[in-house]
């Protein structure tokens, strides 16, 4: 939520002056899809997958072949040639572990992409519903403006005919100015929310909501076991697997490397063959052979230190995953309690408060016009009715936020 607030504030600096540009009207689904398509962070995560896919191919790297050509009097006074080929190959378990590490890193990059997509979708949903709330509030404030305008006009007429005093007229005008001030502030909030969406979507124009504030559907299943689908949890668990596989690689590197090779050389001069006959061999005659050996580290302490450091890194990743899982479970339980609270609050307004607000408004208008109540009673009834409607919008907005948070925790875009 802190990141969301920072982006909300940065949206103000992003440019309210751009709001005069033709706005782009989008539904919530369209807004999320656009953000996922345009966001540089998502593109970076996609490139990271490609990076690790290519890096995975290096797991079977066996190093460079050594080819040494020798010419000179290394055997006799005659000039001879020698070509020696040698290849040092990591121990087979090292190659196998490196290949598996590459696979785990690719999976980790894929989980990272899904986690970033989930985070971005969550931010877009919050910003979009913030815009929906202010749009709904705009309509409510407009209706208040009409009510207070009628009240101010009626009070002005009553004052002119001597039926009321200056206090009533001034009170009516003051309340009307308050509503107009709220309308101006809300209009700024609409522009800020639109600009925030514009920044999240990387759009060239401000965003206008095509949807309306409404009651979102609660996910059908809310079992805690479903948290296993949380993308961030999957990512951090995969990081444990990567650290574990990296440890295996470092441990296997303690094993000696295998050396294989061969040579072809001339031995110019007289040589005794198997039949014990002396035979002269020219430089064109090539003698061949092969070599097989092990490359054993004389100073093993650095290898052991790297293996031990990898073990510590695995344990760090494991503890981080346990801590994150505990936090995730706590956040989920908190989100469920918040949802229960917002449902109860919303039910109160939907079952009784809104009906009472409508009845209060209609009856007070009749009574005021009929002279049954004074302006003080009418104004009080008007404020109460309007306050209930505003609180209902706030309750609906908070309910939607609770549902969006549950969707985020369950990894449902």
Structure in words:
The protein is rod-shaped, with a radius of gyration of 38 Å. A hairpin with a 7-residue loop joins strand 2 (66-72) and strand 3. It has a single domain, classed as Outer membrane efflux proteins (OEP). By secondary structure, the chain is of the alpha+beta class. Helices cover 66% and strands 12% of the residues. Helix 3 packs antiparallel against helix 4. The strands form three sheets. It has a four-stranded antiparallel sheet with strand order 2-3-5-8, with no helix packed on it. The protein has a two-stranded parallel sheet with strand order 1-4. Strands 6-7 form a two-stranded antiparallel ribbon.
As residue ranges, the low-confidence spans are 12-20
Oligomer: single chain
Count of domain modules = 1
Rounded radius of gyration (Å): 38 Å
Number of strands: 8
- CATH fold description: Outer membrane efflux proteins (OEP)
Cα separation of the termini? 17 Å
């Amino acid at each position: 939520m802190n990141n969301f607030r920072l982006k909300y504030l940065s949206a103000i600096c992003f440019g309210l002056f751009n709001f005069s540009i033709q706005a782009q009207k989008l539904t919530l689904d369209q807004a999320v899809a656009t953000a996922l398509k345009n966001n540089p962070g998502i593109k970076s995560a996609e490139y990271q997958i490609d990076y690790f896919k290519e890096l995975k191919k290096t797991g079977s790297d066996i190093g460079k072949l050594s080819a040494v050509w020798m010419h000179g009097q290394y055997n006799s006074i005659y000039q001879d040639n020698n070509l020696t080929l040698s290849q040092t190959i990591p121990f087979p378990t090292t190659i196998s572990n490196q290949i598996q590490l590459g696979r785990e890193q690719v999976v980790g990059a894929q989980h990272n992409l899904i986690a970033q997509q989930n985070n971005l979708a969550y931010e877009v949903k919050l910003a979009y519903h913030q815009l929906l709330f202010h749009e709904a509030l705009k309509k409510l404030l407009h209706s208040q403006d009409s009510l207070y305008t009628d009240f101010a006009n009626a009070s002005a007429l009553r004052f002119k005919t001597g039926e009321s005093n200056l206090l009533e007229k001034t009170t009516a005008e003051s309340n009307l100015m308050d509503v107009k001030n709220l309308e101006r502030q809300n209009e700024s909030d609409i522009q800020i929310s639109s600009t925030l969406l514009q920044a999240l979507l990387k759009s060239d124009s401000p965003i206008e909501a095509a949807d309306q504030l409404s009651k979102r559907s609660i996910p059908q299943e809310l079992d805690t076991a479903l948290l296993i689908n949380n993308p961030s949890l999957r990512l951090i668990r995969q990081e444990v697997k990567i650290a574990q596989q990296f440890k295996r690689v470092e441990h296997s590197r303690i094993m000696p490397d295998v050396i294989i090779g061969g040579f072809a050389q001339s031995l110019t001069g007289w040589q005794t063959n198997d039949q014990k006959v002396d035979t002269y061999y020219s430089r064109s005659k090539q003698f061949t052979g092969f070599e097989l050996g092990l490359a054993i580290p004389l100073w093993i302490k650095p290898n052991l230190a790297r293996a031990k450091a990898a073990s510590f890194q695995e344990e760090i990743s494991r503890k981080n995953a346990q801590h994150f899982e505990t936090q995730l479970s706590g956040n989920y339980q908190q989100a469920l309690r918040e949802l229960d609270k917002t449902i109860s609050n919303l039910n109160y307004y939907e079952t009784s408060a809104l009906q009472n607000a409508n009845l209060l408004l209609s009856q007070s208008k009749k009574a005021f016009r009929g002279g049954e109540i004074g302006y003080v009673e009418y104004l009080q009834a008007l404020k109460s009715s309007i306050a209930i409607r505003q609180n209902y919008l706030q309750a609906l907005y908070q309910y939607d936020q609770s549902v969006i948070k549950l969707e985020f925790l369950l990894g449902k875009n």
